[in-house]
Each structure stands twice: as C-alpha cells, then as structure tokens.
Write a structure and sequence with these properties.
194 residues, five-stranded antiparallel beta sheet, alpha+beta, 7 helices, elongated, 5 strands, Alpha-Beta Plaits
Length: 194
C-alpha cells in the first residue's frame, strides 16, 4: 500500500515573532552607516547635511549687520539700431491711412526716400524662398535681402516694393493681410544714384 506520510506539528518558539524584525533593523542601521561613510568620503570630511545645520559657528551668533549699499546695476543698453542695420523708420498708422507718409500732404515719396513693405525675416533662406513662392502664386512681386546680424548670424528679409505712392503700398498691404501676412511698412533712404 501507499506509504503514510507522517505529519508532525510545528511548534512556535516564544521569541519567534521578533526574529523577523532583527534582520530588518540590522539592514536599516547598516544602510545608514554606509550612506554616512559614502557622504563623508565624497565631501572630503566637510560638514554636510544636518551636521552643518547644528554645527556651532560663533559668526552665526553675532548680530547681523546691514549690508553695505550695493552700487546700482548698470542701465541696459538697447542696441536695436546696431543689430538691425539699414532699418528705415516705420510709418505712423495715421500717416499711412491718410496717405501722407509722415510729411504733410505728400502722396509719393520725396527725393532720397522710398516706401517698402517687409513681409517677414527668416534665419533660413529656404523659409524666405517658400514665402516668396507663395507670394508669386498670388501675383505679388517680392525680393529677398540677406542681412548679417552681429552675434546672431544671417537673416533673410522678404520685402516688397519700392512703391510709387503710399496708396499703392496700402493696396498691396491689404492683399497681404488677406493672406494672413502682417507686413511692416518702412520708409527708407534710397541708395545714392537710385
């Protein structure tokens, strides 16, 4: 027949419940000691953490003296006109609407002055070419002007014009607005001999 398996009763020791906590407590203390040793070695014995907080420093007990008046920080310098060379003056909105261009009653640019629209400025030439192609599909002539900005690299401006009058510039600007392009009107000095 089959062998009978004898089962024996397991007796529990009276201190057996505490024995599970001992390895946990020993591991925790050992982990703290190792963590302290690694921190001490990595910081070269300098005071760190709570030791620094509770260390006795006579200087910390001395009454605080008000700090000496620091010199005023220098005013920022705005170098807009040196960063973007050959930027003409923008035209006031009222002058554009009235067609005066900033001078009383002048409907066309005076000598040495021309009006242009800047549709965009890009850091990459292919972006400027993409916009020019989009404008060409709409029948709007444009050109790209490469400008080197000190410390920032080259930029490619997409410009339109020059325009014979402010009214002509405004009509092209309205066409650009319908395309979702907000152009900047500029009044620039014409190149000598132009």
């Amino acid at each position: 027949m089959a062998q009978q398996v004898r089962r024996t009763a397991v007796r529990h020791r009276p201190g057996g419940a505490r024995s599970g906590w001992r390895p946990l407590l020993i591991g925790f203390v050992l982990g703290l000691v190792i963590m302290w040793a690694v921190q001490h070695i990595m910081n070269g014995g300098r005071l760190t953490g709570l030791r620094k907080l509770f260390a006795h420093h006579p200087a910390a007990m001395a009454p605080a003296q008000p700090p000496a008046a620091a010199p005023a920080p220098p005013k920022p310098t705005f170098d807009f006109y040196t960063i973007l060379p050959e930027v003409g003056s923008g035209m006031p909105e009222a002058a554009r609407r009235n067609g005066t261009g900033g001078s009383a009653g002048a409907k066309s640019p005076g000598k040495g002055v021309r009006y242009i629209l800047q549709a965009a400025a890009y850091a990459k030439s292919h972006d400027a070419d993409h916009l020019r192609a989009r404008l060409a599909l709409e029948g709007i002539e444009s050109y790209t002007e490469k400008v080197s900005v000190e410390g920032r690299g080259s930029y490619y401006r997409v410009r339109l014009g020059p325009f014979a009058s402010i009214a002509a510039m405004n009509s092209v600007d309205r066409r650009l607005a319908r395309l979702g392009i907000k152009a900047i009107p500029l009044k620039v000095k014409a190149a000598p001999g132009a």
